[in-house]
UniProtKB/TrEMBL annotation:
PROSITE patterns in UniProt: HTH_GNTR
Name recorded for this polypeptide: Regulatory protein, gntR family
Species, as recorded: Selenomonas ruminantium
Highest rank taxon of the organism: Bacteria
Keywords, alphabetical: DNA-binding, Transcription, Transcription regulation
Length: 225
C-alpha cells in the first residue's frame, strides 16, 4: 500500500478535528493560521488537505469566507450511479418504492425519539415548504430538508445518510408531479406528519408518511401513463 502523502495525512487530521469537536454540517473550521498551528503544517499543505476533503464532499470552500463542514456528509454526488442509467421515468417510481420501504419506519422512530428542538425544527420546515408552495417558489430544497430532518430525528445515523442520498430523487419527483392538487396534498401530509411527531404518535407518523409517498407514487404513475 502506498504511503499517504502529507496532504492526505493533513486531511485525515482535519476529519479527526471535526469528530473530536463534534462539528456539524454548516459549522466553520478555524482560520488558516489557527489550523496551521494546531496541525503543525504549512499553508500549502493545509490548503491541499482541505481541497482533498472538498473533493470528497466533506468540506465546502467558500471564497473569502473560509471552509465549512459540508451538508453532503462526505456522500458522493451520485452514489447510486443514476448518471449511467438511461433516462427512464420508471426510475422515479423505483426510487419511491425504495423510499416507501423505510421512510414510514423512519417517521415512526422520529415520533418516538425526537427531542423538543428537533420537533420544532421539523414543524418549522413543514411550514417553510408550505410557504414556498404558496409563494410559487421552488420547494425542492425545502422538501428535501423536511425529510432529512425527520431521518436525523430518528436517532439512526444510517437513516440520515440514506435519506440524503434518496433526496436526489425528490427534484425529479416534484418536477414530474407538478400540479396544484399534488402541492396541496404535500402541504396536508407534511402538516400531519409533523404534528404526529410533535404529539409523539409513532403509528400516525408512519401512516401519514406512507400515505404521502403512496399518493406521490400514484401521481407519478398517472403522469407516465
Amino acid at each position: 500500500m502506498a504511503k499517504a502523502t502529507l496532504a492526505e495525512d493533513t486531511a485525515q487530521s482535519i476529519i479527526q478535528y471535526i469528530l473530536d469537536n463534534h462539528l456539524k454540517p454548516g459549522d466553520k473550521l478555524p482560520t488558516e493560521p489557527v489550523f496551521m498551528e494546531k496541525l503543525g503544517v504549512g499553508r500549502g499543505t493545509l490548503r491541499e488537505g482541505i481541497k482533498l476533503l472538498a473533493a470528497r464532499n466533506i468540506l465546502d470552500i467558500r471564497q473569502g469566507a473560509g471552509s465549512y463542514v459540508s451538508h453532503q456528509r462526505g456522500i458522493p454526488d451520485d452514489p447510486l450511479g443514476l448518471t449511467f442509467i438511461e433516462e427512464d421515468s420508471k426510475l422515479i417510481v423505483d426510487m419511491l418504492d425504495v423510499r416507501l420501504l423505510f421512510e414510514p419506519h423512519v417517521a415512526r422512530l422520529a415520533a418516538a425519539r425526537a427531542g423538543e428542538d428537533e420537533k420544532a425544527e421539523i414543524m418549522a420546515q413543514a411550514e417553510e415548504v408550505e410557504r414556498c408552495i404558496e409563494a410559487g417558489e421552488s420547494y425542492v430544497a425545502a422538501d428535501a430538508r423536511f425529510h432529512r430532518l425527520i431521518a436525523e430525528a430518528s436517532g439512526n445515523k444510517v437513516f440520515g445518510n440514506l435519506t440524503y442520498i434518496l433526496n436526489t430523487s425528490i427534484a425529479q419527483n416534484i418536477a414530474i408531479t407538478k400540479d396544484a392538487q399534488r402541492d396541496s396534498n404535500t402541504i396536508r401530509y407534511h402538516r400531519k406528519i409533523a404534528q404526529a411527531i410533535m404529539d409523539k404518535q409513532p403509528d400516525d407518523a408512519a401512516s401519514y408518511m406512507n400515505m404521502h409517498l403512496q399518493l406521490l407514487r400514484e401521481f407519478v404513475r398517472e403522469k407516465m401513463s
